[in-house]
Amino acid sequence: MNPLFLYSLFANYLVPLSALAPIFFALKNYRSLPPAFEILCAFIIVSSLFNLVNLIAIYQYHVRTIRWIHIYTILEFTFVTLVFSRVFNKKWRIPLYALIAVFGLICTIDLVFIQNKLEFNTYTRPVGALIIIGLCMGYIINTSTVESKWTDNSFNWVNTGLLLYYSGGLIMFTFSNYFLKPTLLTLLIWTIHNSILIVEYILFAIGFRKYGLEEKAISSTPIRNK
Amino acid sequence: MQITNNDNTAVLIILAMVGVFILVSAFIIYSVRNQNRLLRQRQEFQQAQIAHQKELLRATIEMQEAERKRIGQDLHDDVGTTISGLRLLIEMFKPTGPEDESFKEFTHSSKSIIDKIVKDVRNISHNLSPTTLRYYGLASAIMEHCGIINQSGKLAITFENEAEQELSAFDINTATALYRVFEELLNNTIKHSGASRASISIKKEGDDILFNYSDNGKGLLVSPEAFKKGMGMQNIESRLLNINATYVILPDESKGFGIEITYPILAAKVAANG
Questions:
Q1: Do A144 and B39 touch (CB under 8 A)?
Q2: Which of A136, A140, B10, B106 has the CB geometry, 3.0–4.6 Å to A163, for a possible disulfide?
Q3: In this complex, is the C-beta atom of B28 within 8 Å of any C-beta atom belonging to chain A?
Q4: 3-state secondary structure of B225
Q5: Does B17 lie at the interface with A, CB-CB under 8 angstroms?
Q6: What residues of B are in contact with residue A138 (Cβ under 8 Å)?
Q7: Using CB atoms within 10 A of its CB, is residue A61 exposed (0-12), middle (13-18) or buried (19+)?
Q8: To 10 degrees, the CA torsion angle through B49, B55, B56, B57?
Q9: Is A216 left (phi over 0), alpha (psi -120 to 50) or beta?
Q10: Could you give the CA distance from residue B213 to residue A141 in angstroms, rounded to a whole number?
């Protein structure tokens, strides 16, 4: 079978569809979701729509959408940082909002003045990924002494998904301008990236599902024990 | 000769991506295992604490039962037997007249038996709740108890008190707990140690009052850990725990047994203020 066809099937259908798993569990428990999970749910929906528009633009209108990733980087960073602003202590909110503003400004400068050709934003996206990795590590440090089973905390799954995706993808984000032309090895790199993305979505789905189970357990507890 | 680099960038990137993914996964697995291990250790510690509390409660209940049994036995053996004897004496006595010699003897015997009953009842009552402790405080009660033992010749006890003022401020619950602890320690010494001398010293050190007890007996024949599991020691521990006092069994450097009890004065003030 043609590897290009297989890749196309994987990248254009399977990976975008895998986003439906977390969306399904998120919408199932949407009414009881805390703000962090609501933002995460919005992020998955927005990024899926972005991906859909991107695919339509490429295959229907033959548009080269590489520069769109600059805009997506700002959106992605904003959503993920907002998620952590709701997870961390309230005192971190203002610094995180400031970080979003500064990062957005840097990304815009990069898009307009620095990496303004048909190329990936290899300066800003790795920086964004590094900051998100830092936020994930901060969360792990904060919760390392929490007296509960790791698997019982729904956000642990989400955090693991984010950490795996951004650390696994960091090197690809940095060197993505080296493989603008589609070769077999380039496709392999994108396949690895897409596989990590599927892992992230599965972990998000587990997180949303776990949250739903926690809620059910709480609501089935007699009121006097609450 | 020109140095050339034939490395394929894409292969290097793939290796780096997979490597980082594996490293991060390993880190996450390690942190999950670590957190679960911490949780397990805490749960084990809590379970051990609960087990210890249960053990203390069991010892307290057993001690109460033993005390009840002792009181019952004292009443039966001393008071009951003596009253039965008195009843028999009254029943057997057939006076011929008030000047009868045997009548005088009967009166004398009856009075002696009644005196004995009064003494027995007083002893039982004293054991249950020492009057001296209530009216004259802890130091006087310990001193009185030591005096009784010294008189019996079973043990020679020396008592030194350098914290008279602090001791007099103790509320009745604290004083009773500490009195019972010393009673238990002296009882252990008499019963098990084969000691000829014991000493009690009380002094103030900073914000604490230190109670030192030692004897010149056989010392600990088992490890301090095993010794602490004995019913007497558990009773002592539970009493001390109740008044926020702590204890240390002193190392067996010379012959004998020694214990140091630390009572924080602040706890006394809090207890006194209710």
A1: no
A2: A136
A3: yes
A4: helix
A5: yes
A6: none
A7: exposed
A8: 110
A9: alpha
A10: 49
Domains of chain B: 10-128 (no CATH), 138-272 (3.30.565.10)
pLDDT digit string (tens) for A110-136?
999 998 888 888 999 999 999 999 999
ipTM of the complex: 0.82
Under the phi-then-psi rule, with left for phi > 0, alpha for psi from -120 to 50, and beta for the rest, what region is A37? alpha
Contacts of A185 in chain B (CB under 8 A): 8, 10-11, 14
- DSSP assignment of A4-41 equals HHHHHHIIIIIHHHHTHHHHHHHHHTGGG--HHHHHHH
DSSP state of A91: G
Token digits of residue A91:
């005192």
Among B13, B25, B35, beta carbon nearest to A171: B13
| B269 burial level (CB within 10 Å; 0-12, 13-18, 19+) | exposed
For the residues of B56-118, what is the DSSP string, one character each? HHHHHHHHHHHHHHHHHHHIIIIIIHHHHHHHHHHHH---S-TT-HHHHHHHHHHHHHHHHHH
Specify the length of chain A in residues.
Answer: 226
Identity of the residue in B16, B28, B38 whose CB atom sits nearest the CB atom of A171? B16
Closest CA to A33 of A215, A165, A173: A215
Q: What is the pLDDT of residue A73?
A: 95
CA distances from A154 to A4, B42, B230 (A): 37, 22, 47
Q: Is B3 helix (H, G, I), strand (E, B) or coil?
A: coil
Three-point CA angle A105, A166, A207, nearest 5°: 110
CB contact (8 A) between residue B17 and residue A172 = yes
* β-pair type (B197-205, B156-161): parallel
Treating both helix axes as pointing N-terminal to C-terminal, what angle do A93-109 and A124-143 enclose, rounded to 10 degrees? 160
Taking the C-alpha atoms of residue A163 and residue A141, their distance in angstroms, rounded to an integer, is: 13
- From A141, which residue of chain B is nearest by alpha-carbon distance? B31
The DSSP call for residue A178 is: G
Strands B246-249 and B208-215: unpaired
Residue B10 at interface with chain A, using a CB cutoff of 8 Å: yes
Contact yes or no for A192 and B17 at CB 8 A: yes
Find tokens 């209530």 and name the residue.
Answer: B134
Tens digit of each residue's pLDDT (9 = 90 or more) over A49-96 = 999 999 899 888 888 888 899 999 999 999 999 999 999 999 999 999
Give the Cα separation of B174 and B156 in Å (integer).
26
- Cβ–Cβ gap A160/B36 under 8 Å: no
Q: What is the pLDDT of residue A155?
A: 93
The Cα of A168 is separated from the nearest Cα of chain B by a number of Å equal to: 5
**The residue to which tokens 């290899």 are assigned:** A122
In 3D space, the residue among B248, B246, B249, B238 whose CA is nearest the CA of residue B263 turns out to be B246
Contact list, A149 vs chain B (CB under 8 Å):
36, 39
